[in-house]
Amino acid sequence: MRIVVLTGGIGGARFLLGVRAHARAIGADVTAVVNVGDDVRMHGLQICPDLDSVMYTLGGAADPERGWGRVGETWVVKEELAKYGVEPSWFGLGDKDTATHLVRTTMLNAGYPLSAVTAALCERWQPGITVLPASDDRLETHVVVDVDGERKAIHFQEWWVRYRGELPTHRFVFRGAESAKPAAGVLDAIAAADVVLIAPSNPVVSIAPILAVPPLREAVANGPAPVVGVSPIIGGAPVRGMADRCLATLEVEVSAGAVGRMYGPRAEGGLLDGWLVDESDAGAEVPGVRTRAVPLWMRDEVATARMVEDALELGGVS
Amino acid sequence: MRIVVLTGGIGGARFLLGVRAHARAIGADVTAVVNVGDDVRMHGLQICPDLDSVMYTLGGAADPERGWGRVGETWVVKEELAKYGVEPSWFGLGDKDTATHLVRTTMLNAGYPLSAVTAALCERWQPGITVLPASDDRLETHVVVDVDGERKAIHFQEWWVRYRGELPTHRFVFRGAESAKPAAGVLDAIAAADVVLIAPSNPVVSIAPILAVPPLREAVANGPAPVVGVSPIIGGAPVRGMADRCLATLEVEVSAGAVGRMYGPRAEGGLLDGWLVDESDAGAEVPGVRTRAVPLWMRDEVATARMVEDALELGGVS
């Protein structure tokens, strides 16, 4: 069996631990198509937070407390940059992380596409799945906000890390998405998939930038494989992160049902065949989509693998 | 009084401590024209070892034991790069140093010349003198060697750090020097100087690359200011570093007199008006050049400042 997962963020990386565990149990192949909208160049370094979260989490090197970045991280480079007075100073640039960014940036500057760079980095991390960026092209999530009395678009990282989303926020823009092509391997993986899973990632800033690449969305929405999403909202609140703030910007209710309806049924131009929600959201209504309520807390790898098993069942491919 | 110092390497940086001390005592201005032949791009970072040695040493942040790099340095980035298996792995890339390189590289990539970047970095280090790279243009010292049975040119850093100079070595090549222009401010400083000092740096790989820039050598050799050199050789051996290996490659004897003769008297197309040697080299003969023997060990800032005072006297400008 071939499983493709659309994913981003820390929740998405943790979901992949369960996907990998269940895939090993049933002998399935997994390809993760990872959000690149968070990617940003800072201090000359190309930083790909979501790809790194996947590599570090599946490579057993993620910081379990902080969620992002490396366990045992140190911060000498960041402190020194601050002493030089160079901006941005608000970004969490760890020393171990810096090495990852240096390797990546050097390869990108030498002309390798991000997908090839990611494959090279994964030689170290051995994630046990295929990790693909959604696109090799530049695609950045920007956020239209009011800051210091002025309306402007800032990079998603600035909105998220510097301002913790606490600015009057008008909309999210996926710069470059319209002309971006899916990265090498992405369309083939989707075409060959037995099922496509949408991870319980932030639908607005982790999943939407992936689907903003027109041929990618087209391949998922009109492909042969059933599509099953896993709700990132449990009991009216995001499991982690700031999906509530993001959904509010879109004037979408913070509920499992509303997110399912936002993705929408395939029959009506949406994405979903199935929508897995938490037991506490058993009443969620997503017309035209098979829903099922199971425990959705990713307490550990075993619990997460069970969610994946449930998602495959809901997609009719278990 | 205006003093210009041609300098490179760790010995040159330490000499500048004495120049600054004496200049403060007599109310003189100092401009250091620093070797850039050691500069190298590694892991996408533009590294300028000699400029950094000057900044860190005069900024009070140099490691006193190791000689190069920052005191209290850590090595997380370097260890991580090694775990990714990327080369070169033999270069001493410290975490604090990495921040300097990131700031520099970002500014260079944004189009600022190295002289402007150096001035910006010096805002942090407050060296108390003007620090100029010899050139804003690319100029790299390469070394023609036999390695693994093959004759090839390797970067100076590879020769020096990786191989410790222990390869059959044929010659040094200053790539880019012929077409390089002196950096902004260099020719003005030399034209306005009351004296030009040649630091007791390695003459072959620290001073020669500076003088390999034709208009720069021309400005020193035919300028109005007297030129006084300080011998890097004491009692037939280099004070520090590998000047002996470098001189051997040029078939120049390792002695204070031979280095003085290599620089040569101005009257015969050379550089020197005066040549300061150590007491133990009192018999050194440099025809056409005023020589003087004084204690040349840079034991501390006071002893070094006295050497500078002696050099100015020898140049007739004290």
From TrEMBL, chains A, B:
Gene3D superfamilies: CofD-like domain (1.10.8.240), CofD-like domains (3.40.50.10680). One of its GO terms (molecular function) is LPPG:FO 2-phospho-L-lactate transferase activity. The gene is cofD. The keyword Transferase applies. Keywords: Magnesium, Transferase. The keyword NADP does not apply. It comes from the Bacteria. It is an enzyme of class 2 (transferase). Its EC number is 2.7.8.28. It comes from Actinoplanes hulinensis. PANTHER family: 2-PHOSPHO-L-LACTATE TRANSFERASE. This is 2-phospho-L-lactate transferase.
